[in-house]
Amino acid sequence: MKLLDEAVANNRDPSLKPAFDKLLTMDNVPRKKAKFVNFVKNCCHIQGNLIERVWSVLEEVKNKQTAERIKREEAVREQV
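RESULT FIELD:
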């Protein structure tokens, strides 16, 4: 999952590193928040506040990637 790899690279909080390390070993990490929270609680055995912090890092990276994609698409449209 490219999003997860970038989130790990951009993570500045050392307390989240173990959570991200566990998530990197998983193949089927959900993309929606409710399913993600349930998945992490059950499979990774990570609790409440830590899950929210991990999700916020992932969401931040996702928003950044979306903004970059939109910018690229607009640049391509302007060239045509």
